[in-house]
Amino acid sequence: xxxxxxxxxxxxxxVGVRTVDSVFARTLDFFYRDALSSDVMQVLDYDISIxxxxxxxxxxxPQMLFGIDGAVPFEPHPVENAFPMFEWGLxxxxxxxxxxxxxxxxxxxxxxxxxxxxPGTPGSxxxx
Length: 128
Known about the structure:
Layout: E1 4-10, E2 13-19, H1 22-32, E3 36-37, E4 46-51, E5 63-68, E6 77-78, H2 82-97, E7 106-111, E8 114-119
Parallel strand pairs: 2-4
Antiparallel strand pairs: 1-2, 1-3, 4-5, 5-6, 7-8
């Protein structure tokens, strides 16, 4: 297995991403190609791993774990959900630690160079 080590430049955050899953690595490259580098000598805000568990779920109905700085805060997800799990986990990392930034639980509608923020409670239909 090849160990993929990439750095995602996510605005004010430098995110290290490690995985042995080539499909996940290709998907990350597809969506974030312009924001990825392999310069592992950078100071990271978050060190994330997407890896299979160390049990039979590695091979039977494969699953992946989201790891952050050596901790695994969530239950494993099916391997086909590895990329959404990464994005959910990264959002969680930022929301629970980057308190120096304004964060809104909101949807956005954009037209041209203008946008409208639609704040709301969870489940209120902001994304529909």
